[in-house]
Amino acid sequence: MKKVYINSIASISPQKTYDNSRFLDEIINYNDTVIFAQDPDYKQYIPPAAARRMAKGIKMGVVASKIAMDEAGIETVDAIITGTGMGCMIDSEKFVSAIIDNNEQYLTPTSFIQSTHNTVAGQIALGMECKAYNFTYVHSAISVESALLDAKMQLENDEAEHILVGGVEELGEHTTKVHRAINHIKPEAVTISGVLDSKTEGAVFSEGANFFVVSNEKTKSCYAELVAVETFNTLQKEKVSEAIENFLKENNLKIDDIDLVVFGNNGDVDFDGYYNKLSEGIFSKTQQVFYKHLVGENNTVSAFGVWLASKILKTQAVPEIVKLNEINTSEFKTVLCYNQYRGQNHSLVLLRKC
Amino acid sequence: MSELKEELKGKIIEQLNLEDVSVADIADDDALFGDGLGLDSIDALELIVMLDKDYGIRLSDPKEGKKIFESVQVMADYIQEHRTK
């Protein structure tokens, strides 16, 4: 089987992460319950005629994919695989609202066409005239991990050489209200430094797009080797340590071999215990980082964790703002990302320095 | 009539999300499709729905749209003659 490499990355998030030459050197301090992505200059990447029908999620996905493709130095890929938990919410809300407001009359096509979960992958393919495999995984908080796993298997079996993989979420006004009503969004505004001290349920909600070009050949721009991906729909808190040890064992590794662990803590008092148990348990002697205080919570934000891990492996530097404990490792060779959302849909992504 | 033409230009810009285009940029006789504003078939569907919803004009034959949507001037003339609301 061939090895799989992350040859380029791109991130559009509530922080200014769209410029790959920078690495969290300027932090935007939020004090809110919902945070929006920082916009790159979309017009620089998308022709006005195409952009006018695109809601924010599509624009973010298209631009992030272009940044990733540019860095990888390729013009097309053998597959485009995306993940999204909620899909194109803005156009979905627009279309459904129109049905209700107009008593099922006068339905216009644009928002309907743009509202499908596969719209982002479809628009990317149209833009690069790529008629290859095009697929979108819609699986809550493991959507993007499912996309990565699909890409990894195709590359390992040499069914493809280069695959564009990414995750996208956008905030829709009505959906955000619903999430607020069911207490999935924090009742009080929190600052980025106060997220983990929050004593309330829910998370700071957000949006963003994170894309990667993964290949079975290492290029100069390579960030990391994608060693393994595993997902679990359900996992009891008491069983997470065991699952991680088994996952590492399958990859001929032990806990001590992990130089850095990337956690998905979001400050939800009901579910951060999953991370705390690991942080104080099997990873108590491992350097730990987190990122959701900077970029919030959404169904594919775990891809930002992979982005962060890739950046750390390539630069061998850890920004102070993401450090979770006092341990400082001198060299980062193997990094593990662990994420879960509301105690379900757990994921493990193992990366190695390339 | 002049008011209707300004109203139509505003609606076209808003409903078709014509970013960077203002009412003043659209001349009454500018072609809406092709080399003019560059609208396409999806826009034509949006305009058909707009005629029905805002002016009570239901096009029984979508091919009629090709002529009716030639320019803002032609659209305004047609609406003036056929509107039910």
From TrEMBL, chain A:
GO terms for biological process: fatty acid biosynthetic process. Keywords: Transferase. GO terms for molecular function: 3-oxoacyl-[acyl-carrier-protein] synthase activity. InterPro entries: Beta-ketoacyl_synthase, Ketoacyl_synth_N, Thiolase-like. It comes from Aequorivita soesokkakensis. It holds the Pfam family ketoacyl-synt. This is 3-oxoacyl-ACP synthase. PANTHER family: 3-OXOACYL-[ACYL-CARRIER-PROTEIN] SYNTHASE, MITOCHONDRIAL (PTHR11712:SF336), POLYKETIDE SYNTHASE-RELATED (PTHR11712). The keyword Transferase applies. The keyword RNA-binding does not apply. GO terms for cellular component: cytosol. Residues 39-217 form the Beta-ketoacyl synthase-like N-terminal domain.
TrEMBL record, chain B:
InterPro entries: ACP-like_sf, PP-bd_ACP. This is Acyl carrier protein. It comes from the Bacteria. Coiled coil: none annotated. Residues 2-83 form the Carrier domain. Gene3D superfamilies: ACP-like. The lineage of its organism: Bacteria, Pseudomonadati, Bacteroidota, Flavobacteriia, Flavobacteriales. Pfam families: PP-binding (PF00550).
